[in-house]
C-alpha cells in the first residue's frame, strides 16, 4: 500500500481539496496534526484508526522520529495510510524527514497538495499579497527561529507573511524596525483563519504589540506591508 501525505489546508473540511476528501474516505490509518478539526476526522471510515501526533509550541509533542516510525510501521502492514498535515505538506511541513524515512524502508509515498495558510489567511481577511503599485513581491517565512533569519533582506521586501510568529511578535517588530522598516508600516495578524473564531488585528509596527497585549496569538498569520491598508476596501470585519 501507499502512504499519502495530504495537506489539510486550514484544518476544516471546507478547505480540503476533492482529491484529499476522496482519499480520506479510503483510509485505514490516519496520522494527523494539531488544528485538524472534527469535520475532517469525520470523513474517514469508522474502522479507520486515528493517531494524533500534533505539535504545538510550548506543549508536549510527538517527536518526529516517532511519527516516522508510525508511518513506516503501518505502511509495511499493507494499510492505506494517510498522513494529514496542516496547510500544504511542502510549506514548513517537515515532509522531507517523513519521505526519507518511508523511502528508506521501501514504502511508496504520494504528496497531495493543500491550501497553505500563508496564502489563504490573508485572502480570507481581505488582504491582497500583491498589488501593481504597493507590492510587486512577497516573502513567506516562519519565525519559529527568528535569529536564523536575514532581517536586513526581509525589511526590503514589499510584503512579508510570517507563520508561527505569535510568541515572537515583539522581537519581530524590533528586528524589522532596526533594519529600516518604518514604525508606520501596517501589520495585520489573522488568528484562526477560516474558522468561526477568526479574528483580525490591524495596526502598525509601532502599536501592534500594545494592540495585542495579553492576547493569545496562536495560531496566527502575520502580514506586514502597505497592502494591509487595502483591507479597508473590502469592508471585511
From TrEMBL:
It is a step in the biosynthesis of both cobalamin (vitamin B12) and siroheme. The keyword Chaperone does not apply. It comes from the Bacteria. The keyword S-adenosyl-L-methionine applies. Residues 2-208 form the Tetrapyrrole methylase domain. Keywords: Methyltransferase, Porphyrin biosynthesis, S-adenosyl-L-methionine, Transferase. CDD domains: SUMT. Its EC number is 2.1.1.107. GO terms for molecular function: uroporphyrin-III C-methyltransferase activity. This is uroporphyrinogen-III C-methyltransferase. One of its GO terms (biological process) is siroheme biosynthetic process. PROSITE patterns: SUMT_2. It holds the Pfam family TP_methylase. Belongs to the precorrin methyltransferase family. Pathway: Porphyrin-containing compound metabolism.
Amino acid at each position: 500500500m501507499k502512504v499519502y501525505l495530504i495537506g489539510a489546508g486550514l484544518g476544516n473540511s471546507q478547505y480540503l481539496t476533492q482529491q484529499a476528501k476522496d482519499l480520506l474516505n479510503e483510509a485505514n490509518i490516519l496520522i494527523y496534526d494539531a488544528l485538524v478539526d472534527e469535520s475532517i476526522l469525520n470523513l474517514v471510515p469508522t474502522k479507520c484508526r486515528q493517531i494524533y501526533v500534533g505539535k504545538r509550541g510550548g506543549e508536549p509533542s510527538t517527536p518526529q522520529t516517532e511519527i516516522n516510525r508510525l508511518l513506516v510501521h503501518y505502511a509495511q502492514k499493507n494499510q492505506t495510510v494517510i498522513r494529514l498535515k496542516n496547510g500544504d505538506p511542502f510549506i514548513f511541513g517537515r515532509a522531507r524527514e517523513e519521505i526519507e524515512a518511508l523511502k528508506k524502508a521501501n514504502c511508496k509515498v504520494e504528496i497531495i497538495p493543500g491550501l497553505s495558510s500563508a496564502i489563504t489567511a490573508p485572502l480570507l481577511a481581505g488582504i491582497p499579497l500583491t498589488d501593481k503599485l504597493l507590492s510587486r513581491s512577497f516573502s513567506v517565512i516562519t519565525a519559529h527561529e527568528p535569529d536564523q533569519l536575514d532581517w536586513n533582506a526581509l525589511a526590503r521586501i514589499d510584503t512579508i507573511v510570517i507563520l508561527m510568529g505569535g510568541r515572537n511578535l515583539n522581537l519581530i517588530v524590533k528586528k524589522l524596525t532596526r533594519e529600516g522598516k518604518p514604525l508606520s508600516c501596517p501589520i495585520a495578524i489573522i488568528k484562526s483563519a477560516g474558522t468561526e473564531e477568526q479574528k483580525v488585528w490591524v495596526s502598525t509596527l509601532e502599536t501592534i504589540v500594545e494592540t495585542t497585549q495579553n492576547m493569545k496569538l496562536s495560531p496566527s498569520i502575520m502580514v506586514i506591508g502597505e497592502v494591509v491598508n487595502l483591507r479597508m476596501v473590502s469592508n471585511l470585519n
